[in-house]
Amino acid sequence: xxxxxxxxxxxxxxxxxxxxxxxxxxxxxxxxxxxxxxxxxxxxxxxxxxxxxxxxxxxxxxxxxxxxxxxxxxxxxxxxxxxxxxxxxxxxxxxxxxxxxxxxxxxxxxxxxxxxxxxxxxxxxxxxxxxxxxxxxxxxxxxxxxxxxxxxxxxxxxxxxxxxxxxxxxxxxxxxxxxxxxxxxxxxxxxxxxxxxxxxxxxxxxxxxxxxxxxxxxxxxxxxxxxxxxxxxxxxxxxxxxxxxxxxxxxxxxxxxxxxxxxxxxxxxxxxxxxxxxxxxxxxxxxxxxxxxxxxxxxxxxxxxxxxxxxxxxxxxxxxxxxxxxxxxxxxxxxxxxxxxxxxxxxxxxxxxxxxxxxxxxxxxxxxxxxxxxxxxxxxxxxxxxxxxxxxxxxxxxxxxxxxxxxxxxxxxxxxxxxxxxxxxxxxxxxxxxxxxxxxxxxxxxxxxxxxxxxxxxxxxxxxxxxxxxxxxxxxxxxxxxxxxxxxxxxxxxxxxxxxxxxxxxxxxxxxxxxxxxxxxxxxxxxxxxxxxxxxxxxxxxxxxxxxxxxxxxxxxxxxxxxxxxxxxxxxxxxxxxxxxx
Length: 582
Description:
Blueprint lengths: L10 H9 L3 E7 L3 H12 L4 E5 L14 E2 L11 H17 L4 E10 L6 H8 L11 H14 L10 E4 H7 L9 E10 L2 H15 L4 E4 L1 E7 L2 E6 L5 E11 L5 H8 L10 E8 L2 H6 L4 E5 L5 E7 L2 E5 L3 E2 L10 H14 L10 E9 L16 E2 L2 E2 L9 E3 L1 E2 L5 H16 L23 H14 L3 H11 L3 H5 L17 H10 L5 H7 L3 H4 L4 H15 L3 H18 L2 E2 L9 E2 L2
Helix pairs in contact: 2-7, 2-11, 12-13, 18-19
């Protein structure tokens, strides 16, 4: 880290504390949204927790969503009414508690028939086998009416409405002209799930200073009554006891359980969801900030939206066995581009328009269902009881969805509190997350904070609002480290040297990948070329005194990640013209 006073969340400080720690009440394996939500909730109750993540926080499925915070309209088809009710309520809470990252999003459903899918919908509603290949106006109208009913608690979004054909084609003129009418309803979108997970970690450590959230620490197994951990950066190993082990490792839950307990049963059977970012700014502009929720071939629901001035297209639902092999493959790309052409038949699109792709594995419950879409998105917490020398139980956080993480975390926390003989001190239902404190969906709080930042720190109003969008009310802390003479980067002008230093010093950033993919969303906001990656590494290298060999490794890791996980060539030969790798 830079030569400043050590932060309470400085990783070297936390590692030193870990060396001296022999026992914690709760040890959480996995730094995705469910694990981190539970870490924060338990810490708020005064419970000392240790959370370890083998890579960076929010590094698996939690970093690869459709950027939606939603009530789960499609789950009405499978009769998961409890999940829809909970999801709609949690969506409304996130609009309040995380207003700096979560905002209302109008959803448009193109409709091509009046009565299509009615019989199949009735059968599915009553839990009878049926395959939805088309959803007509009657089915959609009834579903949206139910959706409004389930979203009535703490309502934060408008009710649905139907839109005449001529009106939807006037507003989105590139849409397939065979549309009969459209429906409009509201859910929400999240601009930076990566940052929200980090803020949950910071909230937890602030609430309970004895708690620690550490990235790049791998769980390697259980020996006797102790958990074995390894620092993946230094190779150092640790052994620590606990009263409860929470397995929140998502698609890797079965692997962790096998390493921890002999004969652990299969719990996870995930599906891959892949997304494309398309460099089509003119089309993105015509969407007017809306997301289109549409049927692809075979009745699969896809989404298309304007994300930061470009087009986000997703997603697939492909069963997978290996959680390590997570890329958007050729078949998925063909499927998604075909769905795009079906929706916008006059808009030319090809692989050359892809500037980023990503995929993640949904950690769904193990199932033998032939239709991946029929597998429940609800959550559960099965227990592996103590056995032999291992005297602590293992609780696995199975399933769940981004939107319902707070409710799932609360259930897990209440269970653990009961096991520890403690009681809940604080409810998280109305508790702001990180930089959401003091902000709302109204503009007034943000404008007041921007005025204060300009006055107190000498920044321009545009820069103050940029920081607000990026950090919420935590922007004041960042602004205090900048000053009016901050040095903006050349190839990555969205950031300054001072801002990068502040984030690295206070948010457990150890690698250039941590910063670029875990503390920003700039990789989705525009195509990034080799010069931007190189400049980022050089700036971080200067701040952290990395030797030339370490800088070369960091740059190679970034270029390699782009090629391996996102199928984008950002090598030096490409310069500032990144290209999709066929």
